[in-house]
Amino acid sequence: MSPGRAAVIGSPVTHSLSPVLHRAAYDVLGLDWTYDAIDVGDPQLADFIDGLDDSWRGLSLTMPLKRVVLALLDEPSPMVELTRAANTVVFQGSRRLGDNTDVYGMVAAVQEATLERLESVTILGGGATATSALAAARELGVDAPTVVVRSKERSADTLAAAERMGSSPTVQLWPGPPESWAVDLVISTVPAGAADDVAPQVGPATRAVFDVVYDPWPTPLARAATTAGSRVIGGLAMLVHQAARQVELMTGRPAPVAAMRSAGSAALAARS
Q: Does pTM surpass 0.85?
């Protein structure tokens, strides 16, 4: 395969672990590819993508670009159509294919933690990642989760996505009543620090907590879950699986998940 380029874009993006994961995959696969982190904001996105040459194979997108990019895609995947959020762009000739590997990453992380059978889920947050969590919960058999948000108005896109995917969430205002924490799984989709004030809500009735944050780790929410005896799923598990799926989409080859996980763990340990 000829040399190629890929990158994670967003703003801010310098903290991203994606370059470590993708580069580890390229090393194992023997690909002469590069993968960088490039700061790109909402206003610059269209010009940035239009300016890419044919050496580019794909992009990973973080906030605030997961919804903005939709207007620039030639072919969104069915999951993108459902969630109206894309974290992946794959270039095939002049065509831009959009996908959402966040959902795949969440489902894989939960299954890896042997939590396949779920009856109740609470999702913290109402943004693009929360929409992916709704889709993941539905794939795991829960189509009536609780969604805890700071503002119902700001979560309108997520609730519209829930209707498209046949999910019927109950919306509660932050931090949610005690019963919203007495569930099989709490998924926090908010940025680092945003869930710190609700960590005391975790109790023995919370079977598991999945925090999508991976740095710094453990988060106060994860520590509270450990203290309560709840199972903890960290953001690194999701990040590795969603990145592995991106590698497969961009290269057409199976991703070396173990090598990617090892590289990610080592990079996080070096930061601490």
A: yes
